[in-house]
Amino acid sequence: xxxxxxxxxxxxxxxxxxxxxxxxxxxxxxxxxxxxxxxxxxxxxxxxxxxxxxxxxxxxxxxxxxxxxxxxxxxxxxxxxxxxxxxxxxxxxxxxxxxxxxxxxxxxxxxxxxxxxxxxxxxxxxxxxxxxxxxxxxxxxxxxxxxxxxxxxxxxxxxxxxxxxxxxxxxxxxxxxxxxxxxxxxxxxxxxxxxxxxxxxxxxxxxxxxxxxxxxxxxxxxxxxxxxxxxxxxxxxxxxxxxxxxxxxxxxxxxxxxxxxxxxxxxxxxxxxxxxxxxxxxxxxxxxxxxxxxxxxxxxxxxxxxxxxxxxxxxxxxxxxxxxxxxxxxxxxxxxxxxxxxxxxxxxxxxxxxxxxxxxxxxxxxxxxxxxxxxxxxxxxxxxxxxxxxxxxxxxxxxxxxxxxxxxxxxxxxxxxxxxxxxxxxxxxxxxxxxxxxxxxxxxxxxxxxxxxxxxxxxxxxxxxxxxxxxxxxxxxxxxxxxxxxxxxxxxx
Length: 493
Ligand code: NDP
Known about the structure:
The chain folds into three domains: 228 residues, FAD/NAD(P)-binding domain; 110 residues, 3-Layer(bba) Sandwich (FAD/NAD(P)-binding domain); 109 residues, 2-Layer Sandwich (Enolase-like, domain 1). Helix content is 30%, strand content 24%. It has 13 helices and 21 strands. The chain starts with a helix and ends in a 6-residue tail after the last strand. Homodimer.
């Protein structure tokens, strides 16, 4: 039905009837997905408007900013802090390489915070200029949908103005959620964590997803005492179990206090900081408590349900393979659809939207072989399936190749931290269907491996690829002996 509409309606040239709309496309939300979709649609000749709240470089009260979560309060500032935190261990490791660091080494949090904010302001400006140069009209304010072809914009002075559009694209992303425990208002989310006035000396983190393990590494790397509380046996549910264990081992090795199968029950304000109570009866004092317990789609104030657009039980906009909702003029991309919540995926969905609706080429996003990385220190990066998923879903045997080794740099620095790599291979076809690595530069290496997997590379092709020596990456092409052969659970008996 959606596809039929695309072919019948969108792929033909816009006819005179379209001229009565203010815009061909109005986008609500100028994050990664919204900016991509609006620019590419405008480049295909569409008249495009986009709305977003203004960006406040210091306050975390305002959730807006052209560039969205990734640029303003997500991936980019987080990665800057990860770089900052990594210098701590690099300086320690430098001693055995002959660097004399006799004088006290100080870390100046405020300086890094200032540099980070400068960079975010710069990127915010670049994003605005990209919109302008593509001919996209930017409106500052909050948008809501008041009709199948009508958006209401609540401007900064509180006045309302309506625009009509042939298509409306929802790209409002997601926001952090807090657990419902007494004293939860004393805790913060990643929004505030990226702009804290003071670096905490004692940090408590609840959760064990991307944000929890990344902030644990950041704060520990900057010298804080960090206690990480999570409800499973290992952090990072959904990733390969062996890699989760490696991350936990590394975090512990770097001095993070790991509290598995434990959750927080109450926060109490005291003169000495925040008293944190756990379900194991422990009490621990903290300067900062970070809730990294997931994110929810930003759909509350959009008025979508009253127009007949379906939301799922998490509040995400329900869309078809082309990102179209039940209402043909309304579309949605990115985290607000809760498909695969990663910036590059929102970019892909934005590109496909623009191609389908304004570019004359109906295109579905391809969710196969999406690589991802967790920027804990050292990082974890994966593409394809984990060993557990491969075994659960395979009809035939699965071959698992692993390599655990001391990275060359550690032989001199003396750091006790192994790098671990894994390839998952379908025995019958010899196809590599999963790769993972926990160790220095894992995300940089995995991007190339993702290309190989996307091309359907076999283990024999990995083996016949010449390595780059000396590097950790070459291990991926020298894993000769199979570590284990496991029968897939769907194998016929
Ligand atoms: P995640 O969904 O990754 O993890 C949430 C964590 O919180 C899980 O460990 C979960 O435990 C735990 N949790 C949820 N509710 C509770 C609760 N009530 N009590 C205790 N623990 C709880 O969310 P994040 O907040 O880490 O990240 C949000 C999104 O942002 C992710 O979808 C991710 O895609 C994206 N992101 C990506 C990054 C990257 O690409 N590097 C970096 C940062 C964020 P359990 O596993 O037991 O359910």
